[in-house]
Task: structure prediction
Amino acid sequence: MKTLIVALQKDGKLASATYELIEVAKRLNSEIYTAILSDNTDTLASDLAERGGGKVLAVSDPNLKFFNDEIYTNVITELIEKYSPDLVLGLATFYGKSLFARLAARNGGPMASDITGIAMNDSNITVTRPSYGGAVVSEIVKNSDKPFFVTVRPKIFPESKDGTGEIIAETVAATGVAVGTTVKEVKVESSGSVNLAEADIIVSAGRGLKAAENLQMIKDLAKVTKGAFGASRAIVDAGWTEYSNQVGQTGKTVNPKLYFAIGISGAIQHIVGMRTSGTIVAINKDKDAPIFNLANYGIIGDAFEIVPALTAKLKAELG
Result:
C-alpha cells in the first residue's frame, strides 16, 4: 500500500502535527511518500526525510509560498496521478480540511474528516471518527479503488521522531499555478503565539470572567505554562476575544494533554470541542456547574483569587 502525506507549511515552518501523520503511515506499514510545497523546500524537505517521511516529494515554486486551495489542489493532484497512492493523509486543520475536500472532489475519491483512529482490516483501510459531539464513534471503510482522502485530528498520535527518507525534487506544470486567485500576504488574527490545534496545554476562559479586561489573567496563566489561550463561544459572541480562540462545536476541536476551563459552565457545545483532552482542570464558583462532571480535577472558588495565585506559583516553579 502507498500512503501520500500532505505536509503543509506556514511562514516556512511545518506544523508539528505533520510528524504525527508520518507515525500513522508507519503503523500501517505502507510505502510512504510526503509532499511538501513551498517557495523553497530545501530545509523543510530535509526535516521530513530525517523524521521518516520516506520519499519526500519537494515542490518549490514562488507561487507556493502562501497556501492557495486551487494551486495546491492542482499540484497535489499531479503528484497523485504520478505516484498512485491508496491513501492520502492530511491534518484536520482549517487549511487541511479546505484542501482535502477539493482533492477528494477533484480525484473522485472517498473522504473521511477529523479521524481519531485508523487500521488495516483484511486489506481494507478502516478509520474511526467521532460524530454528534463524540456521542457516536463512526467506523468508515474504504470502498473504492480511488485514493482514500483522510484528515487526522492533531494530538491523537505521537510524532515520528526518526527514520529514513530521500528527497525527490518535483516540478510543477505552468498550468497548475495559473489560477485566478493570487495570495499576496497572510495576516494572522490571534492573541497568542501557540496554535490551539497543536497546543499541549490550553487555558480557556468563559463568561465567569465577567468582562473582557479580566481575560489578561487567563492569558498570563497560558503564557506561564507555554500554552494556548482558548475561549467559550459566549465570550467570543460578546466581542471579548477573536473567533480564532473559540473552542467548541462551532469553534475548534482540541485535544491537549492539559485543559484549564476557567469560568466555563460546561455547556454541551463547549464540551464537544475539548472532551478528549488528557487532563481537564475546572475552576468555577458554582459547585453544580456541568463542567465538574467532566473534569479530572475541580476547584470550587473565585477565579479572581485562584488564577493569579496559581500563575504566581507556577512562575516561581517553572521560572
